[in-house]
């Protein structure tokens, strides 16, 4: 019979046994589930009181035109010029009201010039918003998505913002190697 006399050999066998008992995720699905669970086990997430629920199927994730940096610049420009156009419209309305309510011809003529200048500004802002909107639409129409990782739906129970346990659902996104979660988005169901 085999006798263990060497303490180093005994230690090596013990370590191999312990390592063999620890299950390492083998499939991509198991890796994703393990990453989600470890995300909630992190010390910063202890206040969530996470309880795992249903894990969806691991699926490919693709880029979106909304993630394109040039598209974001155009989209921000549209918002900027629409805000400016709205403010200019308020100015046009204010000057128009004052022009209509004034009886003094010299003051009315001066206000009329201001009204035309404000109207030109509003038109310029609206034209700029339209220009950048067309550029953003072009990117949207011609964008070619590319594989950028993986995603998985997950239903779980956790504390909400008010500290109450609630059923939640989120989509978790992973890098291409399934080594980390890159982002998560709550699934918001439309109100019926």
Question: What's the helix and strand layout?
Answer:
Elements: H1 7-21, H2 28-41, E1 51-55, E2 59-62, H3 69-101, H4 105-142, E3 147-159, E4 165-174, E5 181-186
Antiparallel strand pairs: 1-3, 2-3, 3-4, 4-5
Give a quick account of the main beta sheet: strands, pairing sense, barrel closure: 5 strands, antiparallel
Helix content: 40-55%
Task: Determine the number of helices (DSSP H or I, runs of at least 4 residues).
Answer: 4
Annotation, overall tally of beta strands:
5
Cα radius of gyration in angstroms: 30 Å
Low-confidence spans: pLDDT under 50, at least 5 residues? none
Order of helices and strands: HHEEHHEEE
Principal-axes shape call? elongated
Determine the strand fraction and express it as a percent band: 15-25%
Ends distance: 73 Å
Mean pLDDT: 87
Class inferred from helices and paired strands: alpha+beta
List keywords for this structure.
alpha+beta, 5-stranded antiparallel beta sheet, 4 helices, 5 strands
Structural description of this entry:
This protein has 192 residues and is α+β, with helices and mostly antiparallel strands. Helices cover 52% and strands 20% of the residues. The protein has helices spanning 7-21, 28-41, 69-101, 105-142, and strands spanning 51-55, 59-62, 147-159, 165-174, 181-186. Strands 1, 2, 3, 4 and 5 form a five-stranded antiparallel beta sheet that branches. Strand 4 (165-174) and strand 5 form a beta hairpin. Helix 3 runs antiparallel to helix 4. The chain starts with 6 loop residues before the first helix and ends in a 6-residue tail after the last strand.
């Amino acid at each position: 019979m085999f006798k263990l006399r060497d303490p180093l050999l005994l230690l090596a066998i013990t370590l191999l046994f312990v390592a063999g008992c620890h299950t390492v995720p083998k499939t991509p699905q198991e890796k994703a589930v393990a990453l989600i669970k470890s995300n909630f086990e992190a010390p910063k997430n202890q206040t969530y009181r996470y309880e795992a629920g249903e894990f969806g199927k691991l699926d490919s994730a693709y880029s979106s035109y909304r993630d394109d940096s040039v598209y974001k610049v155009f989209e921000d420009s549209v918002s900027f010029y629409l805000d400016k156009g709205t403010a200019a419209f308020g100015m046009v309305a204010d000057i128009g009201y004052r022009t209509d309510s004034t009886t003094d011809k010299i003051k009315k003529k001066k206000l009329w010039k201001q009204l035309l200048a404000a109207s030109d500004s509003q038109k310029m802002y609206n034209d700029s918003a339209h220009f950048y909107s067309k550029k953003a639409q072009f990117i949207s129409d011609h964008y070619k998505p590319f594989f950028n990782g993986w995603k998985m739906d997950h239903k779980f129970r956790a504390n909400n913002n008010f500290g109450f346990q609630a059923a939640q659902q989120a989509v978790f996104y992973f890098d291409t190697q399934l080594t980390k979660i890159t982002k998560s988005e709550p699934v918001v169901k439309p109100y019926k």
